Q: What sequence folds into this?
């Protein structure tokens, strides 16, 4: 393992150095990488930034037929404004920004196909009892490793949920589902929660069916928390997320805050007008249209605007070459 870590460091160093030298010679070029938040692609962008070049992060959007292009980063590192009044002011400026047209973003949303035989998407099995639904994420995904916040990772997240579940009112339960793309089961970490009797693991039922039948969604920072807006469900967010704004969701930034939210799940609320403004901005401004095809189609004007935004972004401090 020591040798493997050393080799990985050398590889990342080489990728950084190549990028640094390339963009030092071509500072007018734009560095673009898919995600770019970890590994070699992060090293590539770091090298470009340190050489004074502009950068662009790309990622699939949480909605079908859309793409993320952001010079700042993706997910919690994105350039999406964090002030709720920004979105309400933007919507108030133009009546066309105040409709429910954003709900069309949710058309075509389906649960992911599973990589594991023990995680399915059955259309039956969702109970008619009050529960909060928690769609778990891939444990080693950058959303978890970089943006877990006070939870500190998947183990801490599950421990926090287990503690908060004890505060649920009688008759309520917390319903978990493992991510269909997770290679390893989280059952060893989940088992102590199940033993309490307040937590249920349902890996068989369709993820969106469980979401739709829930009284609310709990997430670290999963895109399903954002997708719950289409079902008008309240959402509790524990980690760092670009949609973790008061009024959009309930921000649980500590164990006591999470316990309090679980103790009164029937009182969870959100601001419908703020959600509509936020989602309309994502629809009309932030996520350009893109369809893989064949043939691939995309909004040329929107893509050009994103490239222009990246080129106009402030330059990172230029470090001397050593």
A:
């Amino acid at each position: 393992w020591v040798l493997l870590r050393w080799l990985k460091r050398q590889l990342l160093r080489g990728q950084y150095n190549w990028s640094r030298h390339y963009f030092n010679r071509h500072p007018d070029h734009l560095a673009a990488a898919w995600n770019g938040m970890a590994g070699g692609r992060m090293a590539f962008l770091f090298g470009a930034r340190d050489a004074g070049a502009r950068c662009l992060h790309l990622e699939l959007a949480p909605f079908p037929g859309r793409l993320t292009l952001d010079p700042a980063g993706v997910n919690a590192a994105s350039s999406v404004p964090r002030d709720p009044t920004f979105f309400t002011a933007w919507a108030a400026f133009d009546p066309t920004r105040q409709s429910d047209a954003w709900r069309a973003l949710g058309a075509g949303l389906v649960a992911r196909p599973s990589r594991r035989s023990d995680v399915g998407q059955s259309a039956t099995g969702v109970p008619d009892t009050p529960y909060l639904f928690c769609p778990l994420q891939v444990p080693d995904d950058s959303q978890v490793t970089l943006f877990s916040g006070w939870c500190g990772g998947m183990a801490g997240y599950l421990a926090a949920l287990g503690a908060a579940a004890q505060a649920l009112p009688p008759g309520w339960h917390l319903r978990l589902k493992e991510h269909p793309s997770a290679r390893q089961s989280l059952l060893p970490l989940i088992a102590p929660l199940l033993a309490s009797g307040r937590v249920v693991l349902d890996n068989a039922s369709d993820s969106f069916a469980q979401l739709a039948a829930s009284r609310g969604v709990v997430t670290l920072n999963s895109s399903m928390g954002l997708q719950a807006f289409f079902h008008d469900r309240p959402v509790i967010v524990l980690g760092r997320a670009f949609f973790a704004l008061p009024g959009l969701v309930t921000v649980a930034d500590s164990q006591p805050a999470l316990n309090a939210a679980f103790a009164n799940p029937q009182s969870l609320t959100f601001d419908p007008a703020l959600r509509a403004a936020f989602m309309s901005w994502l629809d009309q401004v932030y996520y350009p249209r893109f369809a893989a095809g064949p043939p691939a189609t995309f909004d040329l004007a929107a893509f050009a605007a994103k490239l222009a935004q990246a080129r106009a972004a402030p330059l990172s401090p230029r470090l001397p070459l050593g």
